[in-house]
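Notebook entry, structure prediction.
Reason for the run: the old model in the group folder had no record of what sequence produced it. Starting over properly, with the input documented here first.
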Amino acid sequence: MPISESDPRVFFAAERTLLAWLRTGLTIIALGFVVSRFGLFIQLFEAQLQSIPAVSHTSLSAFMGILFVITGSLTIVIAAVQHYRYISQLPQTDLPPRYSKSFAVLLSFMLGILGMGLAGYLLLSQP
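New structure, fully documented this time:
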């Protein structure tokens, strides 16, 4: 089956790739949040077992979690930049009619900024 000069499958493959990177970035952000708060869970668990206030260091899990959140946010932003560069190179005939090149990129940047905001919150809310 010959492929014509204008093949919409190329565009849809690029969209699927962006969505896959968004899912990956959001998963890394969620993992980072869980890791960041895991130290607090262990501290509460120890306090329940010992019936006395536990002195536990949660800074390592908090630091690792914040790194995961930043990594996930950067993953989303870099994927958005790459997607925009690729979509900009496609001929107009490969794009669906009335397609906005900026919507997916703006949404991705917004998610990246929210992820960075979450990293800032986690950093400032550490005991």
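Summary: The radius of gyration is 21 Å.
The old model has been moved to the deprecated folder.
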